[in-house]
Design goal:
The strands form three sheets. The chain has a seven-stranded antiparallel β-sheet, with no helix packed on it. It contains no helices and 16 strands. It is mostly beta strands. The protein has strands at about 10-15, 20, 25-30, 35-40, 45, 50-55, 60-65, 75-85, 85-95, 100-110, 110-115, 125-130, 135-140, 145-155, 160-165, 175-185. Helix content is about 0%, strand content about 55%. Mean pLDDT is about 95; it is low at about 195-205.
Length: about 200
């Protein structure tokens, strides 16, 4: 049974051709050549990817679960944090160089991109994003059930839009099923949950 209740009343930015809610969650099919990117290396600005989001005022931990058949270059799905067209973060799974990767793009006027190869991803996958003040921490769930650190990013404080995203820069019809999206108060120690007592002088935050 899908649970995306957080997104009740959310609004689409660039609505997809298909967005259907069912017992398993939200099924989305992407439009042709959709993406989010801003300037760096490539020189172009793309802002026509699909995002379903609603405003959140402050700190939070969001967890998203979804699955998709990644088949064409740059097929991608995951979480979006959106302040404005020049300040946003997308994090999730993307097919690049012939393999699936966990990745994160942080845009503050210009985009940057970090990725970790995870070839052969299939079935439901989960990502966790925690926003505390001016910091955003991204973790993904490993097959062994461990929340693996992916990214610590600086990002402006204040209200932003939080939601799910899907893009297919090289085709149309990439299908994603988003089955769970939960948002709760920011968890304690999202960056170093097991390290506070083992590292002398490490500041708690």
């Amino acid at each position: 049974m899908g649970d995306i209740g957080f997104l009740e009343g959310a609004d689409w930015m660039n609505p997809p051709p298909v967005a259907e809610r069912g017992a398993d969650g939200l099924r989305v099919q992407t439009g042709f050549e959709t993406d989010f990117w801003r300037l760096t290396h490539y020189g172009f600005v793309h802002d026509n990817g699909h995002v379903l989001a609603r405003e959140v005022p402050g700190d939070f931990t969001a967890t998203l679960t979804w699955e998709a058949p990644y088949a064409a270059a740059f097929d991608q799905a995951g979480v979006m944090l959106w302040l404005d067209a020049a300040h946003w973060i997308k994090a999730g799974i993307e097919l690049t160089d012939g393999a699936t990767h966990w990745g994160c793009v942080v845009t503050r006027e210009r985009s940057d991109w970090s990725a970790v190869a995870a070839p052969g991803i299939s079935g439901p996958q989960s990502l966790r994003v925690t926003r505390v003040g001016g910091a955003v921490i991204v973790n993904y769930l490993t097959p062994g059930g461990h929340w693996q650190f992916l990214r610590l990013a600086d990002f402006p404080e204040g209200p932003l839009k939080l939601g799910l995203m899907a893009c297919s820069p090289s085709r149309a019809g990439f299908e994603v099923v988003f089955s769970r999206f939960t948002v709760e108060p920011a968890i304690a120690n999202p960056l170093h949950p097991d390290s506070w007592d083992s590292v002398p002088g490490l500041a708690r935050g």
